[in-house]
Amino acid sequence: MITIAIGVLMVFGYLLIASEHLTNINKAATAMFAGVVGWILFMLTGTEYISSIHAEEWTDFLNGREPEWEDIHTFVAQNVFLKHAMYICNLVMYLLATTAIVDVLNSNECFGFMKDLIKNRNSKYVLWISVACTFLISVNLDNLTTTVLMLLVMKKIVANDKQRIFIGAAILVAANCGGCCTVIGDTSSLMVWYKDAVTPANFSGALILPALLATCVTTLLIQRKLPHTLDLVRSTVIFRGEDTLLPTWQRVTLLVIGLGGLWFVPTFYRITLLPPFLGSLCVLCLLWVLNEVFNHERIRTEQPSILKGSDHRLLYESLQVIMFVIGMCLAVGVLYECGAMSWLRNIVETIFPNIYIIGAVTGFVSAALDNVALVLTGINMYDVTPDGAMASEYLSFFAQNGPYWHIVVFCAAVGGCLLPIGNTAGYAFLKMEEEASGKWYLKHIAGKVLCGWVVGLACYFVIDYFIR
User: Fold this and answer.
1) How confident is the model at residue 388 (pLDDT cuts 50, 70, 90)?
2) CA 139 to CA 379: how far, in whole Å?
3) What is the rounded distance in angstroms from the CA atom of residue 41 to the CA atom of residue 418?
4) What does the pLDDT read at residue 171?
5) Nearest alpha carbon to residue 333 among 11, 8, 36, 72
6) What pLDDT, in 10s, does the model give residues 46-62?
7) Other Cβ atoms within 10 Å of 60 Cβ, number
8) How far is Cα 416 from Cα 247, in angstroms, rounded to an integer?
9) What percent of the chain has pLDDT over 70?
């Protein structure tokens, strides 16, 4: 009975997440509710799941005596829930550190150079430079942060709303594709890395070319919708005062340390074997100290202009994503512990016996359901195959750096762009660009994203075929 209740709760939660644009119920709240209530229901199941999934640990814990109700609570809290809590804490600490890094950089207008770099009346130039900047930044930062940053820049450059939403759509796709190229570029790829299913170098090497092709094909098709000349925002001269903006060399220093430091996080993990969030905290500490040094005069005189470059929408959206990740990790953890993931894996393997078909289905479903939820579900259906257990070619697909992990992340990232509701960056795009709508996106952008996705997936198939 409890199993049915957990299943119904999770299905209902997934449906509410997918229909956020209709119900206006924040998906972070839905995920948190489903995850917390799911674990409460799990506590009421007694030894039903514990004795089957954790039989050996449960036997050692009891040490030959009959189980009591308090034993169940203690075992679940210490031996079952704790490992999921540690995974969530590691993930959230990393996301909080990167959010703080971005906030420091944005507060000091370290991304302001992009406006001068991009501003031009030629639509092709603006489109491709914007996409290139987005792709390069998103390999370090998550797709939501990158999308919001670039859309804020575009609002200062392009005056025509209809022209700007096409460029914004290309930015959205580039942010998602760039994010899936590195283990630190997106929440989905970060979760796969934390599962120890991939290594940073192999992951980037496998997906960089498919992601680039998916981005370029989509951008090339969007380019045909733009006029040759853009309507630009008129330049206005704003007096900032002598102390309202850091010198260029200081802003560049902060930017290099912030983004360059994040690149060092995988190396930090490989050398020290300490959790990656400690590496990101090291970067944050160094950045914070430099921020205090560079801004000591404004801090000492309490000048409010130090926060002039901040945009609280960026921080607010990032915190919502973190809460959503916490809720989804809790929810998927319950499903894993009650055996639902094994049941789902058997169904998927029966209906879709090929990992490329599974990837395609993942992409199409993530267009309506958030891609983070899809990746988290997909990677928890399978365990990483140990090196000595690959008795068949099929099991090798799920080994460390196996193609399954690459395909799920890539398809969820690009497939999630088929509709703007398929990822958090898409929601931000709809909120910031009022002229854009789901209907407009489906008519003008979805087909172009599909073409880019097919080309990118075909590229990965060719590479994987010849390598394997």
Assistant:
1) low
2) 21
3) 35
4) 94
5) 36
6) 666 777 777 777 777 77
7) 11
8) 40
9) 90
**pLDDT reported for residue 386:** 76
Helical packing angle, 161-179 and 424-432, nearest 10°: 160
Handedness of CA 5, 10, 13, 14 (dihedral sign): negative
- Weakest mean pLDDT among 12-21, 259-268, 299-308, 347-356: 299-308
Interval 426-443 mean pLDDT: 85
Tell me the two tokens of residue 198.
């991939």
| pLDDT for the residue numbered 378 | 86
- Widest pairwise Cα distance in the chain: 80
Q: The tokens of 34 are what?
A: 């489903």
Residue 131 is predicted with a pLDDT of 93
Contact of 95 with 145, CB cutoff 8 Å: no
Tokens of 438: 């789901």
| Cα–Cα dist 356/349, whole Å | 12
Of 79-93, 123-137, 234-248, 368-382, least confident by mean pLDDT is: 234-248
C-alpha 420/C-alpha 442 separation (Å) is 9
3-state secondary structure the chain: CHHHHHHHHHHHHHHHHHCHHHHCCCHHHHHHHHHHHHHHHHHCCCCCCHHHHCHHHHHHHHCCCCCCHHHHHHHHHHHHHHHHHHHHHHHHHHHHHHHHHHHHHHHCCCCCHHHHHHCCCEHHHHHHHHHHHHHHHHCCCCHHHHHHHHHHHHHCCECCHHHHHHHHHHHHHHHHHHHCCCCCCCHHHHHHHHCCCCCHHHHHHHHHHHHHHHHHHHHHHHHCCCCCECCECCCCCCCCCCCCCCCHHHHHHHHHHHHHHHHHHHHHHHHHCCCHHHHHHHHHHHHHHHHHHHCHHHHHHCCHHHHCCCCHHHHHHHHHHHHHHHHHHHHHHHHHHCCHHHHHHHHHHHHCCCHHHHHHHHHHHHCCCCHHHHHHHHHHCCCCECHHHCCCHHHHCCECCCHHHHHHHHHHHHHCCCCHHHCHHHHHHHHHCCCCCHHHHHHHCHHHHHHHHHHHHHHHHHHHHHHC
Q: What is the pTM of this model?
A: 0.85
How far apart, in whole angstroms, are the C-alpha atoms of residue 206 and residue 192? 14
What is the amino acid identity at position 160?
Answer: N
Mean pLDDT for all residues in the chain: 83
Give residue 135's pLDDT band: very low, low, confident or very high (50, 70, 90).
very high
**Tokens matching residue 236:** 């206005």
Nearest to 230 by CA among 160, 153, 131: 160
Q: pLDDT tens digits for 396-408? A: 788 888 899 999 9
